[in-house]
Amino acid sequence: MKQGIPKQIKLFKFSSRSLFFSQTYKVKDFPRISDLASNQESAVDVELGFELKEGKIPCVKGRVELDLALVCQRCLGEVSIHLEPKFQLAFIKNEQQGEALKDDFETILGADDEFSTIEFITDEVLISIPMAPMHDYACASYQQDTQATSKQKRENPFAMLEQLRSKNGRSKK
Ligand SMILES: [Zn+2]
Description:
Elements: E1 2-3, E2 8-10, H1 11-16, E3 20-26, H2 31-34, E4 43-53, E5 57-71, E6 78-83, E7 86-92, H3 95-98, E8 106-109, E9 114-116, H4 117-126, H5 142-154, H6 157-172
Parallel strand pairs: 1-3, 7-8
Antiparallel strand pairs: 2-9, 3-4, 4-5, 5-6, 5-7
């Protein structure tokens, strides 16, 4: 049965009922992601399926699909990146519980039973974004290329993206 995703994940409840949810969000629904991207209205498709393993371990299989318009770290133009993070997580109470599941699932130790759906999805998307998004063709000269690379080594790329975005925004008007 398909239904929209609740705002709060209730791990044990959803898993013991083997619930499946899917929903289409927009980039702007995820504040920490929309800070990095300029395509605020683009679709973010999310599917989450819950199941209880070993009679007591809540597990989530999820899939997210979205395009993000980011700042190319080589030419500083806009680059559209397609992301499709998939994850299989087992929420365990202690290390022993994870033994039987560790081949198929990434184990998460000691998580709360209830947490924000938006924050959860945000984390999975953020770790799938390349550290230095770039066009897949040679979009800038060698000289610009080396400048961009040396700058990245000193700064957090996301902080840098933010600076560039606000700079671009000001120069437009
Ligand atoms: Zn580029």
